Amino acid sequence: MPEKDNLIIGRNPVREALRSGTPIDTVYISQGSGGLGEIIALAKEQGAVVKTADDRKLSQLAEGGAHQGVVAFGAVASYASLEDLLEVSRKKGTKPFLILCDEIEDPHNLGAIIRTAETAGADGVIIPKRRSAMLTPTVYKTSAGAASWLPVARVPNLGAAIDRLKEENIWIYGTDMDGSLYTETNFDGGVALVIGSEGNGMSRLIREKCDFLVKLPMMGRITSLNASVAAGIFMYEVVRQRSMRG
Fold first, then answer.
1. Rounded to an integer, what distance in angstroms lies between the CA atom of residue 49 and that of residue 143?
2. Which of 61, 62, 134, 227 has an alpha carbon within 20 to 30 A of 68's alpha carbon?
3. Which residues neighbour 74 within 8 Å (Cβ) at sequence distance 6 or greater?
4. pLDDT of 193-223, one tens digit each?
5. Where are the beta strands (DSSP E) in 151-229?
């Protein structure tokens, strides 16, 4: 369920928000409603996700407000582009270091990952447009403000983004229990670290696109870690290895 803090309801408010460049994550359109072509076009032009819903769902989202067939949820900040993230390491003169979130849907996990990525000196975080948490107030709060400093790119297709990273000679490291121990993995060169979803890990397609698979040792009865905790361990192994090489 999107967060109510960023709720925009009604045709004119949503239209004007889109026209003004207000960051919009998702626009919900009533099934069968006419006269919404401009809003749909503006939403797609801005890169917002457009979903159809019945009137009952829209009324629930709008909490009883007069939605007029359209409800939108805005982001608390603008998203960067993938090229923006690639430019960060070029300007710093360092090897790329990016975090890819493969369907991380819990906003607390996404916020914690952004927080750790910023402290670890990563260049940015990449999330997919669908099946992912967005830059909501909860994400911002959980990131302890790091979301204000670390660019987050939202891409239509994570697999295509990986292909673009490979064109820049960036190695893709997927986190998977079938991988090699993270301490025995060489994180030299450009690094893109893929963190899988809370329940299912990486999707099959993303897993197949990885150059390396890495894992954490599991010595207890529980065979998995919280996604953000695992992400932090992997990120700081990259930091450790880079600091040793100077």
1. 24
2. 134
3. 6, 8, 17, 22, 23, 24, 25
4. 999 987 788 999 999 999 999 999 888 887 7
5. 152-155, 170-181, 190-195, 212-215
